[in-house]
Fold:
Amino acid sequence: MPTHILQVNQLYRRFGDVQAVNGISFSVAAGTCFGLLGPNGAGKTTTIEILEGVKQADDGEVMFEGKPRTSEYAKMIGIQFQHTALQDFLTVRESLDLFAALYPNPRSVDELIQLCALEDFIDRDNRKLSGGQKQRLLLAIALINQPKLVFLDEPTTGLDPQARRHFWSLIRSIKAQGTTIILTTHYMDEAEQLCDEIAIVDRGEIIASGSPSQLLNAHFEGAIISLPDADDLQAVFADVTKTETGADYISSDVAGDLAKLQAKGISLDGLLVKHPNLEDLFLKLTGHSLRA
Amino acid sequence: MKAFWAIFKARNIEFWRDRATLGWNLMFPVLLIIGFAFMFNNDDKVQYHVGWVGNSDDRAQFLDTTSLRYVDFIEYEDLEAALEKLRYHRVDLVVMPGDLSIQYWLNDDSPSGYITEQLVRSNLLVTAEAASVTGEPIRYLDWVAPGILGMNMMFSCLFGVGYVIVRYRKNGVLKRFQATPVTPFMFLSAQVASRLLVVLFITTSIFTAMALLFDFIIKGNAAALLLIAALAAMSMISLGLLVSARSGSEELAGGLLNLITWPMMLLSGVWFSLEGAAPAIQWAANIFPLTHALSAARSVMLDGGSLVDIAPSLITLFVMTLVFLGIAARLFKWGDN
Structure:
Protein backbone atom coordinates (compact mmCIF):
# COMPACT_ATOMS: atom_id res chain seq x y z
CA MET A 1 0.00 0.00 0.00
CA PRO A 2 1.79 3.14 -1.14
CA THR A 3 1.52 6.06 1.23
CA HIS A 4 1.45 8.48 -1.69
CA ILE A 5 -1.78 8.49 -3.61
CA LEU A 6 -0.37 10.71 -6.34
CA GLN A 7 3.19 11.25 -7.52
CA VAL A 8 4.07 13.89 -10.06
CA ASN A 9 7.44 13.86 -11.82
CA GLN A 10 8.86 16.63 -13.96
CA LEU A 11 5.71 17.94 -15.67
CA TYR A 12 6.16 20.30 -18.61
CA ARG A 13 3.51 22.06 -20.67
CA ARG A 14 3.95 24.89 -23.14
CA PHE A 15 1.27 27.08 -24.80
CA GLY A 16 2.84 28.91 -27.74
CA ASP A 17 5.56 31.07 -26.25
CA VAL A 18 4.50 30.51 -22.65
CA GLN A 19 6.03 27.71 -20.62
CA ALA A 20 2.98 27.31 -18.36
CA VAL A 21 4.37 24.34 -16.42
CA ASN A 22 8.12 24.09 -16.15
CA GLY A 23 9.30 20.92 -14.44
CA ILE A 24 6.85 20.52 -11.58
CA SER A 25 7.29 17.53 -9.22
CA PHE A 26 5.58 16.66 -5.95
CA SER A 27 3.87 13.86 -4.06
CA VAL A 28 0.56 13.82 -2.23
CA ALA A 29 0.07 11.59 0.82
CA ALA A 30 -3.24 9.72 1.02
CA GLY A 31 -5.84 11.38 3.24
CA THR A 32 -4.18 14.80 3.25
CA CYS A 33 -5.03 18.13 1.72
CA PHE A 34 -2.40 19.39 -0.70
CA GLY A 35 -2.46 22.99 -1.90
CA LEU A 36 -0.99 24.59 -4.99
CA LEU A 37 -0.59 28.22 -4.04
CA GLY A 38 0.35 31.00 -6.39
CA PRO A 39 -0.80 34.12 -8.20
CA ASN A 40 -3.11 34.10 -11.23
CA GLY A 41 -1.26 32.81 -14.28
CA ALA A 42 1.34 30.90 -12.24
CA GLY A 43 0.41 27.60 -13.90
CA LYS A 44 -1.76 26.19 -11.10
CA THR A 45 -4.80 25.42 -13.24
CA THR A 46 -2.74 23.92 -16.07
CA THR A 47 -0.94 21.71 -13.54
CA ILE A 48 -4.13 20.54 -11.84
CA GLU A 49 -5.84 19.90 -15.20
CA ILE A 50 -2.92 17.70 -16.26
CA LEU A 51 -3.34 15.79 -13.00
CA GLU A 52 -7.10 15.48 -13.62
CA GLY A 53 -6.43 14.04 -17.08
CA VAL A 54 -8.28 16.90 -18.78
CA LYS A 55 -5.10 18.29 -20.35
CA GLN A 56 -2.06 16.47 -21.65
CA ALA A 57 1.48 17.22 -20.47
CA ASP A 58 4.22 17.74 -23.04
CA ASP A 59 6.50 15.71 -20.81
CA GLY A 60 6.60 14.16 -17.34
CA GLU A 61 4.65 11.44 -15.55
CA VAL A 62 1.75 11.20 -13.14
CA MET A 63 1.43 8.08 -10.99
CA PHE A 64 -1.82 7.23 -9.19
CA GLU A 65 -1.35 4.80 -6.28
CA GLY A 66 2.12 3.99 -7.60
CA LYS A 67 0.99 3.11 -11.12
CA PRO A 68 0.44 5.05 -14.36
CA ARG A 69 -3.15 6.22 -14.73
CA THR A 70 -5.59 3.97 -16.60
CA SER A 71 -9.05 4.57 -18.05
CA GLU A 72 -10.40 3.64 -14.60
CA TYR A 73 -8.81 6.80 -13.19
CA ALA A 74 -11.78 8.97 -14.22
CA LYS A 75 -14.08 6.81 -12.07
CA MET A 76 -11.88 7.21 -8.99
CA ILE A 77 -11.37 10.96 -8.92
CA GLY A 78 -13.69 13.91 -8.42
CA ILE A 79 -13.19 17.33 -10.00
CA GLN A 80 -14.46 20.79 -9.27
CA PHE A 81 -13.43 23.03 -12.14
CA GLN A 82 -12.71 26.72 -11.86
CA HIS A 83 -14.81 27.60 -14.90
CA THR A 84 -17.66 25.27 -15.64
CA ALA A 85 -21.39 25.39 -16.12
CA LEU A 86 -24.26 22.99 -15.71
CA GLN A 87 -27.12 22.57 -18.11
CA ASP A 88 -29.73 25.30 -17.87
CA PHE A 89 -33.30 24.57 -16.74
CA LEU A 90 -32.28 21.61 -14.55
CA THR A 91 -32.79 21.74 -10.79
CA VAL A 92 -30.03 20.94 -8.33
CA ARG A 93 -31.58 17.55 -7.65
CA GLU A 94 -31.90 16.76 -11.36
CA SER A 95 -28.27 17.73 -11.91
CA LEU A 96 -27.21 15.37 -9.14
CA ASP A 97 -29.37 12.58 -10.60
CA LEU A 98 -27.80 13.17 -14.02
CA PHE A 99 -24.22 12.89 -12.79
CA ALA A 100 -25.04 10.03 -10.43
CA ALA A 101 -26.18 8.02 -13.46
CA LEU A 102 -22.76 8.38 -15.08
CA TYR A 103 -20.91 6.37 -12.40
CA PRO A 104 -21.18 2.72 -11.33
CA ASN A 105 -21.44 3.26 -7.54
CA PRO A 106 -22.67 6.77 -6.83
CA ARG A 107 -23.30 8.26 -3.42
CA SER A 108 -26.98 8.67 -2.64
CA VAL A 109 -28.42 12.08 -3.40
CA ASP A 110 -29.59 12.39 0.22
CA GLU A 111 -26.06 11.86 1.48
CA LEU A 112 -24.76 14.55 -0.88
CA ILE A 113 -27.48 16.95 0.20
CA GLN A 114 -26.34 16.53 3.78
CA LEU A 115 -22.60 16.53 3.03
CA CYS A 116 -22.69 19.73 0.97
CA ALA A 117 -25.61 21.50 2.70
CA LEU A 118 -27.86 21.60 -0.37
CA GLU A 119 -31.28 21.15 1.26
CA ASP A 120 -32.24 24.83 1.11
CA PHE A 121 -32.07 25.01 -2.68
CA ILE A 122 -32.36 21.40 -3.80
CA ASP A 123 -35.30 22.09 -6.14
CA ARG A 124 -34.00 25.38 -7.49
CA ASP A 125 -33.01 25.91 -11.12
CA ASN A 126 -29.21 25.86 -11.59
CA ARG A 127 -29.38 29.31 -13.14
CA LYS A 128 -30.82 30.83 -9.97
CA LEU A 129 -28.10 29.72 -7.54
CA SER A 130 -25.82 32.17 -5.74
CA GLY A 131 -22.05 31.84 -6.12
CA GLY A 132 -21.67 29.89 -2.89
CA GLN A 133 -24.62 27.62 -3.67
CA LYS A 134 -23.24 26.88 -7.12
CA GLN A 135 -19.83 25.98 -5.69
CA ARG A 136 -21.50 23.65 -3.17
CA LEU A 137 -23.44 21.93 -5.98
CA LEU A 138 -20.24 21.57 -8.02
CA LEU A 139 -18.52 20.13 -4.96
CA ALA A 140 -21.36 17.65 -4.53
CA ILE A 141 -20.95 16.60 -8.18
CA ALA A 142 -17.21 16.20 -7.63
CA LEU A 143 -17.97 13.88 -4.70
CA ILE A 144 -20.76 11.93 -6.38
CA ASN A 145 -18.65 8.88 -7.27
CA GLN A 146 -17.15 8.52 -3.76
CA PRO A 147 -13.73 9.50 -5.11
CA LYS A 148 -10.46 8.68 -3.36
CA LEU A 149 -8.99 11.91 -4.68
CA VAL A 150 -10.75 15.23 -5.22
CA PHE A 151 -9.41 18.17 -7.21
CA LEU A 152 -10.69 21.64 -6.32
CA ASP A 153 -9.55 24.43 -8.62
CA GLU A 154 -9.90 27.77 -6.84
CA PRO A 155 -13.13 26.66 -5.17
CA THR A 156 -13.77 29.85 -3.21
CA THR A 157 -12.70 32.51 -5.71
CA GLY A 158 -15.41 35.15 -5.91
CA LEU A 159 -17.26 34.04 -2.76
CA ASP A 160 -18.02 36.37 0.14
CA PRO A 161 -16.16 35.74 3.45
CA GLN A 162 -19.08 33.91 5.03
CA ALA A 163 -19.58 31.63 2.05
CA ARG A 164 -15.85 30.92 1.99
CA ARG A 165 -15.80 29.89 5.64
CA HIS A 166 -18.82 27.68 5.08
CA PHE A 167 -17.07 26.07 2.14
CA TRP A 168 -13.93 25.48 4.22
CA SER A 169 -15.94 23.62 6.84
CA LEU A 170 -17.37 21.40 4.09
CA ILE A 171 -13.88 20.63 2.83
CA ARG A 172 -12.73 19.76 6.35
CA SER A 173 -15.59 17.32 6.81
CA ILE A 174 -14.79 15.68 3.46
CA LYS A 175 -11.17 15.33 4.49
CA ALA A 176 -12.27 13.87 7.82
CA GLN A 177 -13.90 11.05 5.84
CA GLY A 178 -10.48 10.12 4.46
CA THR A 179 -10.71 11.70 1.02
CA THR A 180 -7.47 13.12 -0.35
CA ILE A 181 -7.83 16.70 -1.59
CA ILE A 182 -5.71 18.67 -4.03
CA LEU A 183 -6.68 22.30 -4.29
CA THR A 184 -5.38 25.40 -5.97
CA THR A 185 -5.88 28.83 -4.49
CA HIS A 186 -4.45 32.29 -4.52
CA TYR A 187 -5.71 32.94 -0.98
CA MET A 188 -2.95 32.23 1.50
CA ASP A 189 -5.40 32.16 4.41
CA GLU A 190 -7.29 29.39 2.63
CA ALA A 191 -4.10 27.37 2.20
CA GLU A 192 -3.13 27.91 5.84
CA GLN A 193 -6.60 26.89 7.01
CA LEU A 194 -7.04 23.78 4.90
CA CYS A 195 -3.76 22.38 3.66
CA ASP A 196 -1.45 19.90 5.34
CA GLU A 197 1.10 20.52 2.66
CA ILE A 198 1.51 23.28 0.13
CA ALA A 199 3.62 24.00 -2.91
CA ILE A 200 4.10 27.63 -3.86
CA VAL A 201 4.04 27.97 -7.65
CA ASP A 202 5.36 30.91 -9.60
CA ARG A 203 5.97 31.08 -13.37
CA GLY A 204 5.38 27.35 -13.81
CA GLU A 205 7.82 26.23 -11.13
CA ILE A 206 7.52 25.22 -7.48
CA ILE A 207 9.57 27.72 -5.53
CA ALA A 208 8.92 26.30 -2.06
CA SER A 209 7.03 23.38 -0.55
CA GLY A 210 6.23 21.83 2.80
CA SER A 211 3.61 22.24 5.49
CA PRO A 212 2.57 25.87 6.10
CA SER A 213 4.28 25.94 9.52
CA GLN A 214 7.45 24.27 8.19
CA LEU A 215 7.68 26.81 5.41
CA LEU A 216 7.17 29.75 7.72
CA ASN A 217 9.65 28.41 10.30
CA ALA A 218 12.24 27.74 7.62
CA HIS A 219 12.05 31.24 6.17
CA PHE A 220 11.08 33.35 9.17
CA GLU A 221 12.33 33.41 12.70
CA GLY A 222 10.25 35.44 15.13
CA ALA A 223 7.82 38.09 13.98
CA ILE A 224 7.59 40.91 11.49
CA ILE A 225 8.05 44.48 12.71
CA SER A 226 6.42 46.90 10.33
CA LEU A 227 6.68 50.71 10.29
CA PRO A 228 5.12 53.18 7.83
CA ASP A 229 8.44 54.92 7.16
CA ALA A 230 11.20 52.75 5.65
CA ASP A 231 13.97 55.19 6.66
CA ASP A 232 13.11 54.81 10.37
CA LEU A 233 13.63 51.05 10.18
CA GLN A 234 16.72 51.31 8.02
CA ALA A 235 18.30 53.65 10.57
CA VAL A 236 18.50 50.73 12.98
CA PHE A 237 18.40 47.48 10.96
CA ALA A 238 20.23 46.37 7.83
CA ASP A 239 17.87 43.78 6.29
CA VAL A 240 14.66 45.77 5.64
CA THR A 241 12.06 44.94 2.95
CA LYS A 242 10.04 47.82 1.50
CA THR A 243 6.30 47.18 1.14
CA GLU A 244 3.28 49.07 -0.16
CA THR A 245 2.48 50.32 3.33
CA GLY A 246 6.01 51.05 4.52
CA ALA A 247 8.74 48.58 5.44
CA ASP A 248 9.12 45.21 7.19
CA TYR A 249 11.91 43.85 9.36
CA ILE A 250 11.96 40.20 10.42
CA SER A 251 12.85 40.13 14.06
CA SER A 252 13.94 37.16 16.17
CA ASP A 253 13.82 39.27 19.35
CA VAL A 254 10.80 41.57 19.17
CA ALA A 255 11.17 43.12 22.63
CA GLY A 256 14.89 43.82 22.20
CA ASP A 257 14.47 45.26 18.69
CA LEU A 258 11.61 47.55 19.77
CA ALA A 259 13.84 48.81 22.59
CA LYS A 260 16.56 49.56 20.02
CA LEU A 261 14.11 51.63 17.95
CA GLN A 262 12.96 53.57 21.04
CA ALA A 263 16.58 54.13 22.14
CA LYS A 264 17.17 55.87 18.78
CA GLY A 265 14.14 58.07 19.46
CA ILE A 266 12.19 56.69 16.50
CA SER A 267 8.42 57.19 16.72
CA LEU A 268 6.45 53.97 17.03
CA ASP A 269 3.26 55.50 15.56
CA GLY A 270 1.74 53.06 13.07
CA LEU A 271 3.81 50.17 14.44
CA LEU A 272 2.62 46.68 13.49
CA VAL A 273 4.00 43.46 14.92
CA LYS A 274 2.64 40.35 13.23
CA HIS A 275 3.31 36.70 12.66
CA PRO A 276 4.46 36.10 9.13
CA ASN A 277 1.92 34.36 6.88
CA LEU A 278 2.22 32.70 3.50
CA GLU A 279 1.71 35.97 1.69
CA ASP A 280 4.75 37.41 3.46
CA LEU A 281 6.64 34.27 2.49
CA PHE A 282 5.59 34.60 -1.11
CA LEU A 283 6.64 38.22 -1.09
CA LYS A 284 9.98 37.28 0.38
CA LEU A 285 10.58 34.50 -2.17
CA THR A 286 9.46 36.28 -5.32
CA GLY A 287 9.58 39.94 -4.55
CA HIS A 288 6.04 40.38 -5.89
CA SER A 289 2.67 40.14 -4.25
CA LEU A 290 0.42 37.06 -4.48
CA ARG A 291 -2.52 38.95 -5.91
CA ALA A 292 -0.53 40.76 -8.56
CA MET B 1 -27.04 2.61 -20.94
CA LYS B 2 -28.07 4.27 -17.68
CA ALA B 3 -25.74 7.16 -18.56
CA PHE B 4 -27.26 7.47 -22.04
CA TRP B 5 -30.79 7.75 -20.68
CA ALA B 6 -29.73 10.24 -18.02
CA ILE B 7 -28.12 12.58 -20.59
CA PHE B 8 -31.03 12.07 -22.99
CA LYS B 9 -33.52 12.92 -20.26
CA ALA B 10 -31.59 15.97 -19.08
CA ARG B 11 -31.46 17.40 -22.60
CA ASN B 12 -35.21 16.76 -23.09
CA ILE B 13 -36.02 18.52 -19.82
CA GLU B 14 -33.81 21.44 -20.79
CA PHE B 15 -35.57 21.77 -24.14
CA TRP B 16 -39.05 21.35 -22.70
CA ARG B 17 -38.54 23.96 -19.95
CA ASP B 18 -37.00 26.48 -22.32
CA ARG B 19 -40.44 27.82 -23.23
CA ALA B 20 -39.20 30.58 -25.51
CA THR B 21 -37.37 28.14 -27.79
CA LEU B 22 -40.15 25.58 -27.59
CA GLY B 23 -42.76 28.17 -28.48
CA TRP B 24 -40.72 29.40 -31.41
CA ASN B 25 -40.18 25.85 -32.66
CA LEU B 26 -43.92 25.20 -32.61
CA MET B 27 -45.27 28.53 -33.74
CA PHE B 28 -42.92 29.44 -36.56
CA PRO B 29 -43.98 26.72 -39.04
CA VAL B 30 -47.66 27.02 -38.08
CA LEU B 31 -47.63 30.75 -38.73
CA LEU B 32 -45.87 30.24 -42.05
CA ILE B 33 -48.32 27.63 -43.26
CA ILE B 34 -51.34 29.66 -42.17
CA GLY B 35 -49.81 32.68 -43.86
CA PHE B 36 -49.41 30.74 -47.08
CA ALA B 37 -52.92 29.39 -46.86
CA PHE B 38 -54.32 32.94 -46.80
CA MET B 39 -51.94 34.22 -49.41
CA PHE B 40 -52.88 31.57 -51.95
CA ASN B 41 -56.51 31.26 -51.01
CA ASN B 42 -57.45 33.68 -53.75
CA ASP B 43 -58.72 31.21 -56.32
CA ASP B 44 -60.82 33.59 -58.47
CA LYS B 45 -60.15 32.53 -62.03
CA VAL B 46 -59.66 35.34 -64.45
CA GLN B 47 -57.89 33.21 -66.97
CA TYR B 48 -57.94 29.71 -68.29
CA HIS B 49 -54.69 27.91 -68.93
CA VAL B 50 -54.22 25.67 -71.92
CA GLY B 51 -51.14 23.51 -72.13
CA TRP B 52 -50.01 23.41 -75.77
CA VAL B 53 -47.75 20.55 -76.72
CA GLY B 54 -45.23 21.83 -79.24
CA ASN B 55 -44.80 25.32 -80.63
CA SER B 56 -47.87 27.40 -79.87
CA ASP B 57 -47.02 30.14 -82.41
CA ASP B 58 -48.86 28.30 -85.15
CA ARG B 59 -52.00 27.78 -83.10
CA ALA B 60 -53.90 30.13 -85.45
CA GLN B 61 -53.97 27.24 -87.95
CA PHE B 62 -56.13 25.31 -85.55
CA LEU B 63 -58.05 27.90 -83.57
CA ASP B 64 -59.74 31.19 -84.24
CA THR B 65 -57.54 32.96 -81.74
CA THR B 66 -59.00 36.41 -82.40
CA SER B 67 -62.29 35.56 -80.69
CA LEU B 68 -60.73 33.37 -78.04
CA ARG B 69 -60.39 35.46 -74.90
CA TYR B 70 -59.25 34.85 -71.35
CA VAL B 71 -57.17 31.90 -72.44
CA ASP B 72 -53.49 31.71 -71.72
CA PHE B 73 -51.32 29.24 -73.64
CA ILE B 74 -48.40 27.47 -71.96
CA GLU B 75 -45.99 25.52 -74.13
CA TYR B 76 -44.86 22.03 -73.27
CA GLU B 77 -42.39 19.96 -75.26
CA ASP B 78 -43.50 16.75 -73.73
CA LEU B 79 -47.08 15.45 -73.62
CA GLU B 80 -46.52 13.54 -70.37
CA ALA B 81 -45.28 16.67 -68.58
CA ALA B 82 -48.34 18.56 -69.77
CA LEU B 83 -50.73 15.80 -68.68
CA GLU B 84 -49.05 15.76 -65.29
CA LYS B 85 -49.92 19.44 -64.87
CA LEU B 86 -53.44 18.71 -66.02
CA ARG B 87 -53.88 16.00 -63.41
CA TYR B 88 -52.92 18.48 -60.69
CA HIS B 89 -55.15 21.24 -62.15
CA ARG B 90 -52.14 23.43 -62.90
CA VAL B 91 -53.58 23.76 -66.43
CA ASP B 92 -57.21 23.38 -67.47
CA LEU B 93 -56.77 21.70 -70.85
CA VAL B 94 -53.93 20.12 -72.81
CA VAL B 95 -53.88 20.40 -76.60
CA MET B 96 -51.63 18.46 -78.96
CA PRO B 97 -51.91 19.55 -82.58
CA GLY B 98 -51.80 16.93 -85.34
CA ASP B 99 -51.60 17.46 -89.15
CA LEU B 100 -55.09 18.74 -89.75
CA SER B 101 -56.69 17.98 -86.43
CA ILE B 102 -56.02 18.36 -82.75
CA GLN B 103 -56.20 16.03 -79.86
CA TYR B 104 -57.05 17.39 -76.44
CA TRP B 105 -57.28 16.19 -72.87
CA LEU B 106 -59.27 17.52 -70.00
CA ASN B 107 -59.49 16.67 -66.34
CA ASP B 108 -62.90 15.21 -65.46
CA ASP B 109 -62.54 16.48 -61.89
CA SER B 110 -62.00 20.09 -62.93
CA PRO B 111 -64.96 22.47 -63.44
CA SER B 112 -62.80 24.99 -65.26
CA GLY B 113 -61.65 22.21 -67.57
CA TYR B 114 -65.22 21.95 -68.86
CA ILE B 115 -65.44 25.71 -69.45
CA THR B 116 -62.10 25.81 -71.20
CA GLU B 117 -63.15 22.88 -73.36
CA GLN B 118 -66.28 24.80 -74.44
CA LEU B 119 -64.23 27.89 -75.18
CA VAL B 120 -61.75 25.98 -77.32
CA ARG B 121 -64.35 23.85 -79.13
CA SER B 122 -66.40 26.89 -80.16
CA ASN B 123 -63.36 28.36 -81.85
CA LEU B 124 -61.98 25.26 -83.53
CA LEU B 125 -60.91 25.44 -87.19
CA VAL B 126 -60.09 21.74 -87.45
CA THR B 127 -61.49 18.49 -86.13
CA ALA B 128 -60.78 17.50 -82.58
CA GLU B 129 -60.52 14.30 -80.64
CA ALA B 130 -61.10 14.42 -76.88
CA ALA B 131 -59.64 12.35 -74.07
CA SER B 132 -59.67 12.77 -70.35
CA VAL B 133 -57.58 12.30 -67.25
CA THR B 134 -58.58 12.42 -63.61
CA GLY B 135 -56.89 13.89 -60.57
CA GLU B 136 -57.56 16.03 -57.54
CA PRO B 137 -56.18 19.54 -57.64
CA ILE B 138 -52.87 20.15 -55.93
CA ARG B 139 -52.78 23.56 -54.33
CA TYR B 140 -49.52 25.40 -53.84
CA LEU B 141 -50.23 24.87 -50.15
CA ASP B 142 -50.05 21.09 -50.60
CA TRP B 143 -46.80 21.48 -52.42
CA VAL B 144 -45.17 24.00 -50.09
CA ALA B 145 -46.24 22.42 -46.76
CA PRO B 146 -43.56 19.68 -46.79
CA GLY B 147 -41.06 22.36 -47.72
CA ILE B 148 -41.95 24.56 -44.75
CA LEU B 149 -41.92 21.64 -42.34
CA GLY B 150 -38.62 20.47 -43.81
CA MET B 151 -37.15 23.93 -43.45
CA ASN B 152 -38.25 24.13 -39.84
CA MET B 153 -36.74 20.71 -39.25
CA MET B 154 -33.50 21.88 -40.84
CA PHE B 155 -33.21 24.90 -38.53
CA SER B 156 -34.16 22.86 -35.49
CA CYS B 157 -31.64 20.11 -36.27
CA LEU B 158 -28.72 22.31 -37.24
CA PHE B 159 -29.07 25.08 -34.67
CA GLY B 160 -30.60 22.88 -31.96
CA VAL B 161 -27.59 20.59 -32.02
CA GLY B 162 -24.77 22.61 -33.55
CA TYR B 163 -25.31 25.80 -31.60
CA VAL B 164 -26.12 24.05 -28.32
CA ILE B 165 -22.97 21.91 -28.36
CA VAL B 166 -20.79 24.93 -29.13
CA ARG B 167 -22.45 26.77 -26.22
CA TYR B 168 -21.84 23.75 -23.96
CA ARG B 169 -18.20 23.80 -24.99
CA LYS B 170 -17.86 27.52 -24.43
CA ASN B 171 -19.45 27.65 -20.98
CA GLY B 172 -17.80 24.48 -19.69
CA VAL B 173 -20.72 22.01 -19.64
CA LEU B 174 -18.72 19.71 -21.93
CA LYS B 175 -15.65 20.02 -19.71
CA ARG B 176 -17.75 18.87 -16.76
CA PHE B 177 -18.82 15.79 -18.75
CA GLN B 178 -15.27 15.19 -19.91
CA ALA B 179 -14.30 14.68 -16.26
CA THR B 180 -16.76 11.79 -15.98
CA PRO B 181 -16.38 8.31 -17.49
CA VAL B 182 -18.84 9.26 -20.28
CA THR B 183 -17.45 8.73 -23.78
CA PRO B 184 -17.95 11.33 -26.53
CA PHE B 185 -19.90 8.73 -28.50
CA MET B 186 -22.39 8.22 -25.68
CA PHE B 187 -22.77 11.92 -24.98
CA LEU B 188 -23.29 12.78 -28.64
CA SER B 189 -25.68 9.93 -29.35
CA ALA B 190 -27.84 11.05 -26.42
CA GLN B 191 -27.89 14.56 -27.90
CA VAL B 192 -28.83 13.15 -31.32
CA ALA B 193 -31.57 10.96 -29.86
CA SER B 194 -33.02 13.83 -27.85
CA ARG B 195 -33.12 16.16 -30.84
CA LEU B 196 -34.54 13.43 -33.07
CA LEU B 197 -37.38 12.91 -30.61
CA VAL B 198 -38.03 16.64 -30.38
CA VAL B 199 -37.98 17.19 -34.14
CA LEU B 200 -40.19 14.21 -34.94
CA PHE B 201 -42.63 15.15 -32.22
CA ILE B 202 -42.90 18.75 -33.40
CA THR B 203 -43.02 17.91 -37.09
CA THR B 204 -45.61 15.18 -36.64
CA SER B 205 -47.83 17.35 -34.44
CA ILE B 206 -47.74 20.28 -36.82
CA PHE B 207 -48.22 18.08 -39.85
CA THR B 208 -51.22 16.33 -38.32
CA ALA B 209 -52.86 19.55 -37.19
CA MET B 210 -52.26 21.25 -40.53
CA ALA B 211 -53.40 18.19 -42.48
CA LEU B 212 -56.72 18.24 -40.61
CA LEU B 213 -57.10 21.98 -40.96
CA PHE B 214 -56.21 22.27 -44.64
CA ASP B 215 -57.02 18.77 -45.84
CA PHE B 216 -53.60 18.09 -47.35
CA ILE B 217 -53.34 15.63 -50.18
CA ILE B 218 -51.62 12.54 -48.85
CA LYS B 219 -51.71 9.89 -51.55
CA GLY B 220 -48.94 7.68 -50.21
CA ASN B 221 -48.26 6.03 -46.92
CA ALA B 222 -48.03 8.24 -43.80
CA ALA B 223 -45.51 5.82 -42.27
CA ALA B 224 -43.24 6.41 -45.25
CA LEU B 225 -43.44 10.14 -44.50
CA LEU B 226 -42.38 9.48 -40.93
CA LEU B 227 -39.45 7.41 -42.17
CA ILE B 228 -38.39 10.25 -44.47
CA ALA B 229 -38.68 12.73 -41.62
CA ALA B 230 -36.57 10.54 -39.34
CA LEU B 231 -33.82 10.03 -41.91
CA ALA B 232 -33.85 13.70 -42.88
CA ALA B 233 -33.58 14.73 -39.22
CA MET B 234 -30.74 12.25 -38.61
CA SER B 235 -28.75 13.55 -41.55
CA MET B 236 -29.20 17.19 -40.57
CA ILE B 237 -28.47 16.56 -36.87
CA SER B 238 -25.26 14.82 -37.97
CA LEU B 239 -24.42 17.86 -40.08
CA GLY B 240 -25.00 20.02 -36.99
CA LEU B 241 -22.62 17.81 -34.99
CA LEU B 242 -20.04 18.18 -37.73
CA VAL B 243 -20.26 21.98 -37.55
CA SER B 244 -19.94 21.91 -33.77
CA ALA B 245 -17.22 19.27 -33.52
CA ARG B 246 -14.48 21.65 -32.40
CA SER B 247 -15.48 25.28 -32.19
CA GLY B 248 -15.95 27.06 -28.90
CA SER B 249 -17.12 30.25 -30.57
CA GLU B 250 -20.85 30.80 -30.92
CA GLU B 251 -20.19 33.51 -33.51
CA LEU B 252 -18.18 31.18 -35.72
CA ALA B 253 -20.68 28.35 -35.33
CA GLY B 254 -23.59 30.72 -36.02
CA GLY B 255 -21.87 31.93 -39.18
CA LEU B 256 -21.18 28.41 -40.37
CA LEU B 257 -24.73 27.32 -39.65
CA ASN B 258 -26.13 30.29 -41.58
CA LEU B 259 -23.74 29.51 -44.40
CA ILE B 260 -25.28 26.05 -44.62
CA THR B 261 -28.94 26.78 -43.85
CA TRP B 262 -29.52 29.72 -46.17
CA PRO B 263 -28.35 28.10 -49.42
CA MET B 264 -30.14 24.91 -48.33
CA MET B 265 -33.36 26.84 -47.74
CA LEU B 266 -33.16 28.55 -51.14
CA LEU B 267 -31.87 25.70 -53.28
CA SER B 268 -33.40 22.53 -51.93
CA GLY B 269 -36.86 23.28 -53.29
CA VAL B 270 -38.57 24.57 -50.15
CA TRP B 271 -40.40 27.42 -51.88
CA PHE B 272 -40.30 26.63 -55.58
CA SER B 273 -39.56 23.70 -57.78
CA LEU B 274 -36.08 23.40 -59.21
CA GLU B 275 -37.41 21.73 -62.39
CA GLY B 276 -36.79 24.81 -64.49
CA ALA B 277 -33.50 25.81 -62.82
CA ALA B 278 -30.10 25.63 -64.49
CA PRO B 279 -28.64 22.10 -64.46
CA ALA B 280 -25.65 23.30 -62.43
CA ILE B 281 -27.97 24.53 -59.67
CA GLN B 282 -29.99 21.31 -59.75
CA TRP B 283 -26.76 19.36 -59.50
CA ALA B 284 -25.44 21.52 -56.65
CA ALA B 285 -28.74 21.20 -54.75
CA ASN B 286 -28.07 17.48 -54.44
CA ILE B 287 -25.45 18.10 -51.77
CA PHE B 288 -28.20 19.26 -49.41
CA PRO B 289 -29.99 16.57 -47.38
CA LEU B 290 -33.18 18.63 -47.51
CA THR B 291 -33.35 18.35 -51.33
CA HIS B 292 -33.59 14.57 -51.10
CA ALA B 293 -35.98 14.68 -48.15
CA LEU B 294 -38.38 17.07 -49.91
CA SER B 295 -38.39 15.24 -53.21
CA ALA B 296 -39.15 12.00 -51.35
CA ALA B 297 -41.85 13.61 -49.19
CA ARG B 298 -43.57 15.21 -52.20
CA SER B 299 -43.35 11.99 -54.14
CA VAL B 300 -45.17 10.17 -51.32
CA MET B 301 -47.69 12.92 -50.60
CA LEU B 302 -48.56 14.14 -54.08
CA ASP B 303 -47.79 11.20 -56.38
CA GLY B 304 -48.40 8.33 -53.99
CA GLY B 305 -44.78 7.23 -54.31
CA SER B 306 -43.94 3.88 -52.71
CA LEU B 307 -40.88 2.98 -50.65
CA VAL B 308 -39.31 1.63 -53.83
CA ASP B 309 -39.85 4.97 -55.58
CA ILE B 310 -38.19 6.94 -52.80
CA ALA B 311 -35.47 4.38 -52.01
CA PRO B 312 -32.71 6.39 -53.77
CA SER B 313 -33.53 9.45 -51.63
CA LEU B 314 -33.68 7.39 -48.44
CA ILE B 315 -30.36 5.71 -49.21
CA THR B 316 -28.76 9.08 -49.96
CA LEU B 317 -29.97 10.49 -46.64
CA PHE B 318 -28.70 7.43 -44.81
CA VAL B 319 -25.27 7.64 -46.44
CA MET B 320 -25.09 11.37 -45.68
CA THR B 321 -25.86 10.62 -42.03
CA LEU B 322 -23.05 8.07 -41.83
CA VAL B 323 -20.55 10.36 -43.53
CA PHE B 324 -21.36 13.44 -41.42
CA LEU B 325 -21.48 11.44 -38.20
CA GLY B 326 -18.22 9.63 -38.97
CA ILE B 327 -16.32 12.86 -39.63
CA ALA B 328 -17.93 14.62 -36.65
CA ALA B 329 -16.95 11.79 -34.28
CA ARG B 330 -13.36 11.92 -35.56
CA LEU B 331 -13.10 15.67 -35.17
CA PHE B 332 -14.94 16.01 -31.85
CA LYS B 333 -13.17 17.61 -28.90
CA TRP B 334 -14.59 18.29 -25.45
CA GLY B 335 -12.55 21.43 -24.90
CA ASP B 336 -11.72 24.28 -27.24
CA ASN B 337 -7.96 24.12 -26.87
Notes: Chain B has a mean pLDDT of 87. The interface with chain A takes residues 2-3, 5-7, 9-11, 13-14, 17-18, 168, 171-173, 175-182, 335 of chain B (CB under 8 Å).
